């Protein structure tokens, strides 16, 4: 039998959106904790292994997203070192195959747009397929109706997806909702299978990825990050040589820093 390769999936979204619940639904068992992640540091991550009944294997990276559309300077600096660690870990695992953007089925917000941009545009340079996972839809007669009603709002915020799963990810629901939970597993797994393109290599980011990432992310920062602080993070937390760190920091849009 040919060796089964593992696909790497990054799941992101605000706290309480249902990321850990979605991982458990996908896995068919409780592997992720359903409680606020104790480390709320932007782009901090936890890795899980999931195997479907047909033997296909996935590594799912549960991440900490933004809680507001903007970042404070301190958060910006830790987001840089977390992103660097995450991308390097993903590279070791063979690259990113799919992004799952988890949102609660309610109003489309500016924070959702910032998370979309952080993960899809900044972290993955728009090179990775993205599927939307909309949770909390057990009260809808047809869960898919949420998408039909909200499509125009997603467009307004420039949130584009290759596919979507409208689901409920809550496991402790009564009879009628229980059926929707089971139905949701099928919907979610199909979306993952279809969009985790097995014939494509995972995306890993190129040579100038880090410079490009920290430069784009500066757009979200409240205040002006200091070049010396960025060099400090790159050398102390990312283990970069001082000269390289200086060059990276030099490339950041000069109007945004002091
Ligand atoms: N009713 C309902 N509750 C849900 C659904 N999905 C998740 N929840 C609940 O919402 C809460 C948050 O869910 P989590 O899966 O922990 O959310 P998360 O995105 O992992 O949150 P953080 O780890 O804090 O970032 C939990 O109490 C879940 O049981 C859903 O589809 N419907
Ligand atoms: Mg969680």
From TrEMBL:
One GO molecular-function entry = GTP binding
**Record-linked InterPro entries:** GTP-bd, P-loop_NTPase, Sigma_54_int_dom_ATP-bd_1
The segment(s) forming the G domain are 8-134
Q: Which Pfam family name is an example for this entry?
A: MMR_HSR1
Protein name, entry field: G domain-containing protein
């Amino acid at each position: 039998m040919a060796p089964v390769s593992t696909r790497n999936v990054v799941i992101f979204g605000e706290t309480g959106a249902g990321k850990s619940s979605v991982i458990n639904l996908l896995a068919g068992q409780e592997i992720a904790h359903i409680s606020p992640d104790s480390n709320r540091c932007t782009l901090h991550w936890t890795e899980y292994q999931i195997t479907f009944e047909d033997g296909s294997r996935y590594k799912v990276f549960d991440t900490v997203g933004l809680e507001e559309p903007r970042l404070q300077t301190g958060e910006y600096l830790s987001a840089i070192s977390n992103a660097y660690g995450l991308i390097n870990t993903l590279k070791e695992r063979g690259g990113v195959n799919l992004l799952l953007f988890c949102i609660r089925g309610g109003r489309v917000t500016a924070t959702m747009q910032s998370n979309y941009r952080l993960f899809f545009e900044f972290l993955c340079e728009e090179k990775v397929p993205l599927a939307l996972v909309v949770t909390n839809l057990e009260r809808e007669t047809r869960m898919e109706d949420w998408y039909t009603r909200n499509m125009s709002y997603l467009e307004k915020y420039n949130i584009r997806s290759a596919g979507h799963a409208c689901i409920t990810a809550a496991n402790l629901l009564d009879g009628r909702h229980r059926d929707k939970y089971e139905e949701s597993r099928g919907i979610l797994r199909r979306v993952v299978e279809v969009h985790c393109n097995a014939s494509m290599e995972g995306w890993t980011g190129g040579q100038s990825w880090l410079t490009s990432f920290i430069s784009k992310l500066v757009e979200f920062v409240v205040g002006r990050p200091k070049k010396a602080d960025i060099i400090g993070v790159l050398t102390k937390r990312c283990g970069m040589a001082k000269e390289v760190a200086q060059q990276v920091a030099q490339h950041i849009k000069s109007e945004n820093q002091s």
